[in-house]
Amino acid sequence: MQGETNQYIYRQIYTRLKEDILSFKYESHEKLPSKRGMAETLNVSVNSVKSAYEQLLAEGYIYAKERKGYFIEPLDQLIVDPDAQKTLGQYKEGKPQLYEYSFSHMSTDMSEFPVDVWTKLLKRVFDNYEYYLSAIPNIKGPIELRQSIAKLVSYQRGIQCHPEQIIIGSGTNTLLKRLMQLLPTEVKIGVENPGYSRFRNLLNEGGTTTIPLELDGKGISINQINATQPDAVIVTPSHQFPTGIIMPVSRRIDLLNWASTTNSYIIEDDYDSEFKYQTDNIPSLYSFDKNESVIYLGTFSKTLMPGLRLSYMILPPALVQKFETHNFDMIPDFSMLNALTLNLMIKEGYYEKYVKKMHQHYGRKREQLIVALQQAFQDKVNIKDTEAGLHFMIDVKSPFTYEEIEQRAKEAKLELYTINRFIVKALEENNGVKTLIIGFSKIKIEQLDDAVRCLKKVLLG
Ligand SMILES: Cc1ncc(COP(=O)(O)O)c(C=O)c1O
């Protein structure tokens, strides 16, 4: 208790003196009273004054001369810009919007996540991987996880690659940024339209030119690629985002041939390929490629959770050395603790078991949601139901504009995205038909009917 009181008194003396020095109540080089003298004036212990003087000395407010005492350091007036102060005062952290129901395509269902398994494996990482945890990690990620991913993509995605080609990152967005640093600065990247707007915005903000490319029934349009001549394209062939188109083999061959004849890259965003409901897994575009034209992006944000922030990129051999040279001084941005825990989860079969379980869970949810939508909207809805992924698109006849729908959803505490979020030029009215993206991963099965009732109210009034 005595210690705490001294601590408190020392802090008060230190703060008072600091404020007085900063407001120039003391002259430069003015001598401070001796410790004993100050202690007597303030009626406190010499130790409290000593601690305050030592702190001021450490921070450079005063200086000491041997056997002479403590003196005020000459300081310039700190320039204070009144406008900067105003901006700071105005800044308020916006509260996150809380939703009653969510049709977000970005979320996952956490209710079945094996927290006990994760915790057990995390403890094992602490016990066995101190050499990794206590040092700066390899920029490409721990070799153990890269080896596990190489095996995983081999039997799940038909990808034959060496762990050396795999780069772990804290998200496909950050990996895409790293990839851009390896390509010439003036590259033009073709992006799907509609497509994953985060990629498009990220590239544009980073100064890369993007070319929005329309889709036809088979996915990204080869005619448009030929007409606009991008240096690379980003595609989602396993389940086009957001339309759901699965790129048929004919278009895959056309795309690969375009890449090899023009010496261009195809960036394959394989974000949710683990979830196919009636068919078997569809092989990746990377697995078709014989000319090292494809750069593969994979993520654990859909199979596990977006909050984990673990994704990976598989580079063609020609870019591996370039990546290593370019990133020689970089420190990776992912959590080593999570990366090593994930490695154990994959290696010991828990990951595959969990994905299988979630596959069934999402499949059931998806079917029930489709029935609920058909019952609620009847002939006012057209469900564009590709049997894959964690979202689908619907067309609904609604008397409201897109803007009104977004506002009404917000007011109803319903998380809902329209096609306009993913398209370069906002869609105009189309005989009252509005296109929406319906993500079904986050919503609970027991909430489905209520959520659809809420959606109906938002869309039809
Ligand atoms: C189309 C698309 N690509 C990629 C991702 C994965 O992003 P990340 O790995 O940064 O979480 C998502 C996530 O929702 C997505 O919707």
TrEMBL record:
The keyword Ion transport does not apply. InterPro entries: Aminotransferase_I/II_large, HTH_trans_reg/aminotransferase, PyrdxlP-dep_Trfase, PyrdxlP-dep_Trfase_major, Tscrpt_reg_HTH_GntR, WH-like_DNA-bd_sf, WH_DNA-bd_sf. Keywords: Aminotransferase, DNA-binding, Pyridoxal phosphate, Transcription, Transcription regulation, Transferase. The keyword Zinc does not apply. It holds the Pfam family GntR. PROSITE patterns: HTH_GNTR. This is HTH-type transcriptional regulatory protein GabR. It comes from the Bacteria. Signal peptide: none annotated. CDD domains: AAT_like (cd00609), WHTH_GntR (cd07377). In the C-terminal section; belongs to the class-I pyridoxal-phosphate-dependent aminotransferase family. Its cofactor is pyridoxal 5'-phosphate.
